[in-house]
Amino acid sequence: MDIPAEGSNIQIQSYKHNGSLHRIWAETKVLKATNHMVIGGNDRTLVTEADGRTWMTREPAICYFHSDLWFNIISMIRDDGIYHYCNLGSPFVYDREALKYIDYDLDIKVFPDMTFTLLDEDEYEHNRKLMGYPDVIDHILKKNVDKLVRWIRQGKGPFSADFIDIWYDRYLTYLS
């Protein structure tokens, strides 16, 4: 797999299980990239939905993608604290065009006090039947929801306050 260059801007593309494009983030600055992980930062980036609608993100965010985990984490830095939006999805691939993953509908929203809510279970069940998610994918995703909850409770990875501080500081160095 190709690795994006640190300091470069990449596009992030999410797809659905049936191969259809779901959402595109126009620009994310690569802060760290290895064969297994990409950490990026963005602020007020253009997002394009599958139906062509566009919107701009409202705050700086640190994005965490891993090639072995069935989730990714977007940590949004707001005035009242850090909110994490966790997408259950396939491990990422990077092919020089974009960082890509399959979005599997389930999400976990984590609030600044580290309480969290599992979202979109109805959408997941609907799409699981509609797109025929295999049982093995269903099993993997449910195991990764449990893993993600453990990470949240343990303050692991992006859920550590130091993680966001370090990577947001690095992001700011690219802006000056």
Describe this structure in words.
It catalyses: a ribonucleoside 5'-diphosphate + H2O = a ribonucleoside 5'-phosphate + phosphate + H(+); a ribonucleoside 5'-triphosphate + H2O = a ribonucleoside 5'-diphosphate + phosphate + H(+). Has nucleoside phosphatase activity towards nucleoside triphosphates and nucleoside diphosphates. Belongs to the Ntdp family. The protein is α+β, with helices and mostly antiparallel strands and 176 residues long. The chain has one domain: FomD barrel-like fold, CATH 2.40.380.10. It contains three helices and eleven strands; from the N terminus they run E-E-E-E-E-E-E-E-E-E-E-H-H-H. It has helices spanning 121-131, 135-154, 161-175, and strands at 9-15, 21-33, 37-42, 46-49, 54-56, 61-66, 71-78, 81-89, 93-94, 99-110, 116-119. The chain has a seven-stranded mixed β-barrel. Strand 7 and strand 8 (81-89) form a beta hairpin. The chain is globular, with a radius of gyration of 16 Å. The relative contact order is 0.17. The model has no long low-confidence stretch (mean pLDDT 97).
Key phrases:
single chain, 176 residues, alpha+beta, FomD barrel-like fold, seven-stranded mixed barrel, 42% strand, globular, EC 3.6.1.6, hydrolase, DUF402
